[in-house]
Amino acid sequence: MPSGAHQRIEEIQQTLQTIAGLDGWLFYDFRHSDPLAYRVLHLNPAHHVTRRWYYWIPRHGQSVKLLHRIEPHALDELPGDTLLYVSWEEQHAHLAQALTGARRVAMQYSPMNAIPYISRVDAGTIELIRSFGIEIVTSADLVQQFEAVWTDYQLASHQEAAEKLRLIVDEAFQHVRRCMLSKKPLNEYGLQQFILSRITHHGLTTSSAPIAATNAHSADPHYGPTSGSSADICHGDLVLIDLWAKRPEPGSVYADITWTGHVGNTVPASRQRVFAIVKAARDQAVSFVRERVTAGEFPHGADVDDVCRHVIRKAGYGDQFVHRTGHSIGEEVHGNGANIDNLETRDSRRLVPRTCFSIEPGIYLPGEFGIRSELDVYISDRDALVFGQPVQTEIIAILA
Question: Is the peptide bond preceding residue 390 cis, with omega within 30 degrees of 0?
Fold first, then answer.
């Protein structure tokens, strides 16, 4: 048995023993319906698994694997006793047997689907476990601790990615400048492809193409140019770029930033004014996190969203800030830790040390332009750190 698997289960049990009234953590999967289970338990996600499996980690004692007889080796990486089933009756009976004595169990469940990242167990399975007289509680905080907390290697990989993305931002705006001065045609798709080429050049990889958007397109938070549909970049345009990448090695984590520029010598006052509001909201959120963490208090993700959103609402643009303030960052660009959100969901999870999230307020004026400013915040035990300096303080005048 790999020692790493034993160590992970021991760590989980040690944590369970610190949570009053929690009897254990039950994992369930059907055809990779719960990717969190594979991440937390360090299972190979490439395993070919076609039948339901359960893995029970009690507060004390031996773990239990419940597997179908035609796939008895599906959880060989993990320690524990094994129960095998064929019929659904056997499955139910063995599951009740494994959970004997448990009254309060954590699962990948979120009441009212408040945090959809955690809602991985289907309603029928929840009903089945409840039929044994068991109360199910959300595993949201457990998942955050065992999936979203970074190692030293991951922190170093993030720092490198953030520094390189900052360099790519400068390269992208320089590319726009060269094209404008040489009167070489450039459209959003061409700029996107240039950014992708620089990501590769700098030894990074990305899950999807970056955003390169001008003018009214920048007012669409998830706009993406294509080779067949892309606006030309011209003098006087606002250019928004949003890029995310990480090192290709297993375990590496993402950095994710957004910058805006103006194709001209002088940025129009209307754009400067909106950027100033977005920047103030961004900086207020970062300051709030830093002050609380420095004092040894870790706010909820929703609290940080409230602080940021208040600045934009007070300026009269609340209805134009149409997404959460930020998202967890990990091995996926949208990670599984606490999100900075009290709009799309109410993320009541506390931010915890050694996790990272974006702060990215935006104001989007349909038919005109959108401004978003995004940076990443890493929380240590007593500080909130932003890598990839300097952060944006004003719209870049690309031809200045």
Answer: yes
Q: Is the pLDDT of residue 255 over 80?
A: yes
CA distance 369 to 135: 49
Burial class of residue 92, CB neighbours in 10 A (0-12, 13-18, 19+)? middle
Rounded Cα gap, residues 217 and 178, in angstroms: 22
Dmax over Cα atoms in the chain, in whole Å? 75
Residue 344 backbone dihedrals phi, psi, to 5 degrees: -70, -35
Q: Give the rounded distance of the alpha carbon of 79 from its chain centre.
A: 30
For 170-223, the pLDDT digits (tens) are 999 999 999 999 999 999 999 999 999 999 999 999 999 999 999 999 999 999
Contact predicate 369/150, CB 8 Å: no
Which residue in the block uniquely carries the two structure tokens 């905080």? 141
Amino acid type, 17:
Q
Residue 6's pLDDT is what? 87
Place of tokens 């003018």: 215
Report pLDDT for 1.
41
Scanning the structure block, which residue is given the tokens 């996190």?
289
Helices (H) and strands (E) in the chain, counts: 9, 16
Please report the pLDDT score of residue 4 as a whole number: 75
CA distance 67 to 70: 8
At residue 3, does pLDDT exceed 90? no
User: What domains can be seen in the chain, in order of their start residue?
Assistant: 3-147 (3.40.350.10), 149-397 (3.90.230.10)
**Which helix H or strand E contains 118, and what residues bound it?**
none
Whole-number Å distance between alpha carbons of 354 and 227: 40
Residue 353 neighbours by CB distance under 10 Å: 15
Q: CB of 398 within 8 A of CB of 356?
A: no
pLDDT digits (tens, 9 = 90+) for 329-360: 999 999 999 999 999 999 999 999 999 999 99
Q: Binning pLDDT at 50, 70 and 90, where does residue 5 land?
A: confident
What is the full DSSP assignment across 276-340?
A: HHHHHHHHHHHHHHHHHHHTT---BHHHHHHHHHHHHHHTT-GGG--S-SB-EESSSSS-SS--B
